[in-house]
Amino acid sequence: xxxxxxxxxxxxxxxxxxxxxxRPKQYLSLAGKTILEHTVELLLSHPKIHSIVIAIxxxxxxxxxxxxxxxxxxxxxxxGAERADSVLSALSKVPKECWALVHDAARPCVAxxxxxxxxxxxxxxxxxxxxxxxxxxxxxxRASSKSDQPLISYTESREALWHALTPQLFPSTLLxxxxxxxxxxxxxxxxxxxxxxxxxxKVALISGNPANIKITHPADLPLAEFYLQQRxxxxxxCE
Length: 239
Known about the structure:
This is 2-C-methyl-D-erythritol 4-phosphate cytidylyltransferase. This protein is an alpha/beta fold. It has helices at 35-44, 83-91, 112-119, 172-184, 192-198, 220-238; strands spanning 6-12, 29-30, 33-34, 51-56, 74-78, 99-102, 129-135, 140-143, 152-156, 162-171, 203-207. The strands form three sheets. It has a seven-stranded mixed β-sheet with strand order 5-4-1-6-10-7-11, sandwiched between helices. A hairpin with a 2-residue loop joins β2 (29-30) and β3 (33-34). The radius of gyration is 18 Å and the shape is globular.
């Protein structure tokens, strides 16, 4: 039996204001490369990922200086104002009947074996797809306001709560239809799974490595570098 085609989609049109940097965060330096290069090269190294589509800003002046921009398996498209717009733009360039593996540009520390575990969802006919996630371990507090000095309203139960990560994996046609429907209905689409949920799809939670952090604040950079170093050491030990 032929394995389904898997195409990675990377929405990378954001600015990343919280990094307080002079460029979008995906182009910040991390262990000798840009964050985006680490992310793309990891996905390119996976034997089951056929190709990658990256949605970039129309004003992006950085990506064309990187070798990944001209890689034979990489396609660049113009993204949109919101994540869903960028993902839809990228999905317009993928083959119909493939599976879309949507991954954040700023998550360079995802593990190959986590991607393997996620791809196993393609064999599960009881679900629409799946996402990498980690169980919530910390005590969760609900704030009473969004002011500069919020107060605790109450403590949320962390039972059955998970942190949603990426990649998130769904059939491309299903994801296109779900995103369009959710946007038309004015639903809160914060990730691909939320669009699938909106149309009634069941989404599997695949437990992933907590090192798969999203670089959002300046303090995340040294932590990401540490995780990359540990991953490289582990790979050397396996060789």
